[in-house]
Write a structure and sequence with these properties.
Elements: H1 29-66, E1 75-77, E2 83-86, H2 101-111, H3 123-135, H4 146-155, H5 162-178, H6 181-191, H7 201-209, H8 218-226, H9 240-256, H10 262-270, H11 287-301, E3 310-313, H12 317-334, E4 340-346, E5 353-357, H13 369-372, H14 382-391, E6 399-401, E7 426-428, H15 429-435, H16 438-448, H17 450-459, H18 480-487, E8 495-497, E9 502-506, E10 512-515, E11 520-522, H19 526-542, H20 547-550, E12 558-563, E13 569-575, E14 580-586, H21 599-602, H22 604-614, E15 630-635, E16 648-653, H23 671-694
Parallel strand pairs: 1-3
Antiparallel strand pairs: 1-2, 3-9, 4-5, 4-14, 6-7, 8-11, 9-10, 12-13, 13-14, 15-16
Helix pairs in contact: 1-5, 2-8, 2-9, 4-5, 4-6, 8-9, 9-10, 12-22, 14-16, 14-17, 14-19, 15-19
Length: about 700
């Protein structure tokens, strides 16, 4: 008997042949390690996401539970961390019983007709929105219910994203499970944004009709309910026809839902709507600053304002008070009740807005002239020309010549002439800026070129300046905020800063909803910046701004006056080491302010008053020399090397600047100095003649 060659358990089969392929090897250890790491990372991510989601849901559940005890508000916080004012200081919350049924039904009909039957989200509307989103990629439509709108108003922002819509839906379910429908509706009607800075139906009723909501008729209720879809576009104070047209849509939906009859609809559509003028601010204090900050918040988060959020601002209330007082007192002294003024104060190091006043009286006009009024700066633009010149090889002692042959443009703020009444034919840059000489600015722009000036202006936020010969005389248009921020580059060492009023927005959980760090870019060298500071100090010490010293500005400071053609605008923009401030005075519809309405007479007193008050809060120091500059004593009259009888000052020269070598010809000096001066003059004359011969 033959012995089987097969091992036990193996079935005999056909004759073994060659293997058709290699045996599959076991996974390499390295592959297994990579696979295990990927699995571990995925598991860790799932754990983290789950933990974050659960934490968020627990926090929101607690926030929703607290709604039964009332709702907080968004607070604006001053620079020192103290609470300053609320988002809506005039909202009047009322119980649902004080809101007429017609107004309740109007909102339900136009915004959420299945409000009483859904659990916070409307499955039918949600399905319809999903279909539309699929058909139109890029859209984010969510079929929001009243509860979802309330959730967004109280806890979220208006940013359109699928994540926000999911959060909104979850919050709506939480709210609907925690509160009754009447509680949800009451919160909604007291919190909804309805245009022109007005929140809640009670406040809107009093602003729009001058009566409490309980007294409104059907047509008036429909107008208010119609505003919810587009508060800004349908504001009755700016688009009454649009608001009324929308109210007719509301009335149609109310009839379709059975809230009113067809006869009631027709009667309401024939009712004439009478509204009151926009009431404006009810309190004058800090009105422009508050509304500016509120608008900054709305621009980022929409009309909603969640409870218990904080908006951390850069404003200093004490400086805001000083700014309001300076504008009020200054305009009172000037007399004309129609004259307006704007004042902006910034931290030159960061661009932080410390104070802002946009007009004479916020109650009478909410138009913010500090941020929205674009006017010609006149000679207040000249420092940008001079800074560009210093960056391109000029020094403060460089001379511009041929001034007598230039036709003057615009009003000369100060035109000193010699005994014969002749115009000086040559001036140094320092003297030209001290005098605010228009002829010198025109010649300097020709020598430097317009392009470098435009580039510097654009880099500090003055965009869309005209490429014209009169650019240096301020023929472009700027806002007071823009021009003030541009001047910050002088005391801060050559940096362009971006003005900011809001530093950070913190949500109810302490998380950051928005961060706005300071931004700066180097635009001129620190040496050029210091040369400009020195020249602009001279403007206050012995130039067009000298009156500031009589107004009490005794500390180190610099600045520049500005006056436009026909005296339509008066400016002064100046700075200390710790603050830069701009003031504009004029009429809203440009016209002559008065005879000889120079910036030194109309804007400088307001600036000086504020600077004197601000110095108590922000102590000014001497301006710090950045180094790299050569100091030379020059004659204060001739701007040449001094002799014995010369009044002197310190001039600063960058590497490569031409330092004057001639002795002052104005003052007598000693006999030796006079002989040396004569010899140098003779040698100079001979040199020119020899140069002409060989040429």
């Amino acid at each position: 008997m033959k012995r089987s060659i097969f091992r036990p358990g193996l079935r005999p089969g056909p004759r073994l042949g060659r293997l058709r392929g290699p045996l599959r090897p076991a996974p390499f250890p390295r592959v297994r390690a990579v696979r295990d790491r990927i699995a571990a990372v995925i598991f860790a991510l799932l754990v983290v996401v789950t933990a974050v989601t659960l934490t968020w849901m627990l926090r929101q559940a607690w926030a929703v539970y607290r709604l039964q005890r009332g709702v907080g508000d968004t607070w604006f916080v001053a620079a020192d961390g103290r609470r300053w004012f609320r988002m809506d200081e005039h909202r009047q919350d009322v119980p649902l019983a004080a809101i007429p049924k017609d107004l309740q039904h109007a909102f339900i009909a136009i915004e959420d007709h299945r409000f009483y039957s859904h659990p916070g989200i409307d499955p039918i509307a949600l399905a319809r929105a999903i279909v539309r989103n699929v058909r139109s990629p890029g859209t984010v439509e969510g079929g929001s219910t009243l509860t979802q709108q309330l959730a967004r108003t109280l806890f979220l922002s208006n940013q359109k994203s699928y994540i926000r819509k999911i959060r909104e839906g979850v919050l709506a379910l939480m709210i609907d499970s925690e509160l009754t429908k009447d509680q949800v509706l009451e919160l909604y009607l007291n919190r909804i944004y309805l245009s022109a800075g007005v929140y809640g139906v009670e406040t809107m009723s009093r602003h729009l009709y001058g009566r409490p909501a309980r007294s409104l008729n059907l047509a008036e209720c429909a107008v208010i309910a119609g505003l919810a879809r587009a508060p800004s576009a349908l504001s009755p104070w700016s688009n009454l026809d649009g608001a009324i047209e929308r109210s007719h849509v509301v009335l149609g939906r109310m009839r379709e839902e059975g809230f009113i009859t067809e006869a009631q609809q027709r009667a309401a559509e024939r009712t004439k709507i009478q509204i009151r003028p926009y009431p404006g601010a009810t309190e004058p204090r800090w009105g422009y600053a508050k509304e500016f900050l509120r608008q900054q918040f709305r621009d980022r988060f929409g009309g909603d304002h969640p409870p218990d959020w904080e908006v951390r601002t850069t404003f200093v209330p004490e400086l805001q008070d000083a700014a309001e007082r300076a504008v009020e007192d200054g305009l009172r002294r000037l007399g004309d009740r129609n004259l307006q003024a704007a004042l902006v104060a910034l931290d030159p190091a960061t661009g932080d807005i410390l104070a802002l006043v946009g007009g004479r009286d916020f109650r009478q006009s909410q138009f913010n002239r500090a941020t929205r009024s674009r006017r010609q700066p006149g000679s207040a633009f000249k420092p940008l020309l001079f800074a560009a010149a210093l960056e391109h090889g000029f020094s403060p002692a460089s001379v511009v010549q041929g001034l007598a042959n230039i036709t003057p443009q615009g009003p000369d703020e100060w035109a000193p002439r010699n005994a014969a009444g002749e115009t000086a034919d040559a001036l140094t840059l320092r003297a030209a800026l001290i005098e605010s000489n228009n002829r010198a600015a025109t010649v300097l722009q020709q020598r430097v070129g317009t392009r470098p000036v435009l580039r510097l202006a654009s880099s500090v936020g003055l965009r869309d300046m005209p490429d014209v010969p009169s650019l240096s005389l301020g023929s472009g248009e700027v806002t007071p905020l823009e021009l003030t921020a541009a001047f910050a580059m002088f005391p801060n060492g050559g940096l362009a800063v971006r003005p900011r009023g809001v530093i950070r927005v913190v949500d109810a959980d302490g998380g950051s909803a928005y961060d706005n760090p300071p931004q700066s870019d180097k635009v001129i060298s620190p040496q050029t910046a210091f040369q400009m500071v020195s020249m602009l100090e001279d403007v206050l010490d012995r130039g067009t701004g000298a009156a500031a010293r009589t107004w009490g500005v005794r500390f180190p400071a610099g600045g520049k006056t500005g006056t436009t053609n026909d005296f339509k605008d008066a400016w002064f923009v100046g700075f200390s080491s710790s603050i830069v401030v701009g003031v504009w005075v004029g009429f809203d519809q440009p016209k002559t302010i008065g005879r000889d309405a120079y910036g030194s007479r109309y804007a400088l007193p307001l600036w000086s008053d504020f600077m004197r008050r601000a110095a108590r809060r922000r102590t000014p120091d001497a301006f710090e020399n950045p180094g790299g500059l050569v100091e030379e004593q020059l004659c204060r009259v001739s701007y040449l090397r001094p002799i014995e009888q010369c009044p002197v000052y310190t001039e600063y020269f960058k590497p490569g600047d031409d330092v004057p070598s001639r002795l002052c010809p104005v003052h007598q000096g000693t006999t030796k100095q006079r002989v040396n001066r004569a010899l140098k003059g003779l040698l100079s004359t001979l040199g020119k003649k020899l140069k002409g011969i060989f040429k």
